[in-house]
Amino acid sequence: MLYKLSMRFIADLHIHSSYSRATSKDMVPEALWKWAQIKGITVAGTGDFTHPAWLTELNEKTEPTGDGLLRLKREFEADDIPASCRADVFFVLSSEISTIYSKNGRTRKVHSVIFVPQISDALKLNLALSKIGNLNADGRPILGLDAKELLRIVLDACPQALFVPAHVWTPHFSVLGAVSGFDSLEECFEDLTPRIRAIETGLSSDPAMNWRLSALDRLTLVSNSDAHSPAKMGREANILDADISYESIKKAIETGDGFLGTIEFFPEEGKYHYDGHRACGVNLAPGETIKNDYLCPACGKKVTVGVLHRVEKLADRAHGFKPDGAKPFHSLIPLPEIIAETHGTGVASKKVEREYLKLIYELGNEFRILMDAPLPDIERAGSPLIREAISRVRDGKVNIVPGFDGEYGKIRIFEVEERKQIKGQTMLF
Amino acid sequence: MTNAEARILDGLNESQRVAVTAADGPLMVVAGPGTGKTLTIVRRIAYLIHQGIRPEHILAVTFTNRAAQEMRERTVTLPGKDAAKAFIGTFHMMGLQIVRDNTPHDFVICTRSDQVDLLRAILKDKAHGRKANETAETISRIKNFLEDGDEETRAVYDQYQAALLENNAFDLDDLILKPIGMLRDASILQGYRDRFRYIIVDEYQDINPAQYRLLRLFAGDSGNICVVGDADQAIYAFRGADVTNFLNFENDFQGAGRITLSHNYRSTATIVNASDMMIQNNARRIARTVCPVREGGAPITVASVPDERAEAALVVSEIEARIGGTSHYWLMNEPHRQDYPDSAYSFSDFAVIYRTNAQAEIIKEVFRASGIPFQVIGSRRLSEERTFSDSIETLKGRAANIDKEKLEKAFSMEELIRRALNELGVEDDNLLCRLLMSIIPSNDASTVQNFNDAMKMVRLLLPSDDFDPKADSVALMTLHMAKGLEFKVVFIAGTEDGLIPYLRDGHDDAEEERRLFYVGMTRAKEELFLLHARSRFLYGKKTNPQPSPFVREIPGAFTRTITVPDKAKKRHQKQMKLF
To answer: Does residue A100 form part of some domain?
Structure first.
């Protein structure tokens, strides 16, 4: 079988199903399969395997590959996938768990992503966890459990499991977060810390920010979309060169061997890059926050300390340091956002949808367009403005008003005048 | 003072020290909520041992396995050789010991469901078993109250006892009643009096006539009996535990001393003073002063909500506010966030307490939807919430049919229990094993020697043993189940006239109900919420209840009132899609 050979592929391992809160009804196996192809994802996390109904649906609609992954059963495959995008898609059983507990005098809220190879492993883990909390309420269940205990339970139930602390810098729900996290992985996982071999950097941080902490050098920095709707899949992802099997993917993530790097948001676009207070529209750089004594200059309430600030607080290295063996990464902006930017409209507009489909049909999946497609081809299938926009994204020449306190950053690739100018040029030809 | 003595008396206040070191003779320790009752008992046990009393001569009895376990754990950490040899257990455990000592053959213990099965056969009750259930209740009353019962009941009673005899079984009430009979033999009685020379009784206000008789036999007229309790927390009148026994102690035991522990270490001054003002409306009590050690405290929140669903929703949102939200979604809701920025709450810091199990359904529903982990104590209605009770029931149910031969030769207690569980096929053996190991005194080899003994202990488990203090989840329970527990934040739901006090067949026992409410209020360490619905659907009827009269007995200075208005219309949220 061809897919068993070692190959370069993209994996987005943390998503949510329709059984999670505030998640699109469209997050069903068929849609994950379809959108993985449109985006260019070869291996996608199933998300939510702790939810009994979702696990049942997965069991019904997918079949094991024999290598610790799942694939959609043929009878559920739709035939409306653009020929340019068609590709094999595999799923790995994944789930995110929210642990909320009190440790060392503070409330701690830590999210973790867990991977297992077989549905039977998922069932075994679910049985153990169902004694602790309610798995039916949410695809991402809340457990009143120490994250370290969760790790222990996971490893007891399934020794082949992979346990990755999720979006580790997010202020409210992560192991290193400013509001309810810890100052180090050791404080959280104690003697089990060596069992943590990778962390998820989250949307608001990129690998370069994480390189500033020598304590993280031994860990693989993974990136996933945490998508709640199909179109958000792949907004962050991993590039691997390995066999398409659970064991190989796990090994690549744990050892870095075969892990080529990640696809990232520009961290400024993330919801918690900067500090601030959303209700007052106050957006602060870390230095300004300190000057304001961590209070909102408008209302005097405490500001939410963002990821950049938190990284700087825990960092033991200067900005720009790059450790040996650090993996490369690509900072990208999702294609619909780029197209929207060329028109100066919102992402949800009809125009954007039309243009997106045209590009996909002609050039292939979104990752190919964003990273590999020759610029002249993009211009031919799209427009000079899109070509210029993608060229700038590839070169990192974009302006972003950083996100803060739950509000996404605002991207600007073109100044208004520029957009007119480039459009004007094309009118001449 | 020796080193050991200093350790035993370390950190005690004056009245606790007096209670711990009081000399021989009957002693009553009046211990209100949060006054260090268990601390005083375990220190007294340690002090007796330190004075040269042999641990085997000490008997400490309480009502729940949970309380007995805590006492055992705390006793063995104190100075004192062989402290584990003291008998620390429930009344049932003590009774079981006596029945076993004086019954030549092996026997089984039947639980309430076994009783009902026997009675259904006797009464030919083929329907839903309501008659059998009621009769089981009546028989239990006869045994606990040491009553004769009317003629009709007596006939069934005799048939029932014959059936027990035939099955070589005792019911739980027999574990108290049978020893009373056995102790009529003067030499047997003397044997126990020689053995249990120092008696300590916890929660003495909950003692029923049968238990009283048994203790009385042990202690003689002026024995070394120390009873600890609080008349204001007597809540088991319906099981025959009349507060009278507590009030009469000083008459019953000539020359009895009395010590009052009055410093409350648990709750804020607001909660201590407010609950004290409320309970002073009872007539049948021992007047006492309370001194809150902790100052100030947030006012008690009296919340008026539209209905029972809004009541549960308010509880959930207050918990979320203290935890700091359980999802990003919640954080987007500006008014609530940052209310408790430097808090250290976990889910086990919260309890929701109500008068009747019927109230629990809607609360469970709202909690389930919220995703907040919770445990329901002492209730096993829904199969999806498999709790200890379910496992206990499974275990009890299958205990009778087990192949015991395989288990007879187990070497250690742990091994014994593990094998028993494996044999029973109980799935969640980790959880249950932990529970059983903690309940069964592991170093008291005389109590549990073989599998049958282990099974007997399993049958002594109570609904309150459901509570898993290690499970980090919000506790939901009735007021009766809340006794002996404490939480940072307590919500009492349904503080409405008709529920608190609970109106049964058109009348209520106001003093008992007030005590029950007092128990509920005094569970709270930091914050207390008293919620009442303006409209409630209960027992198939819609009602418009008034707030509980007990809430009105709390002076306004201790409370703040919030009113949740009737429902506003929900706004529908649109989802953005690309395709």
So the answer is: yes
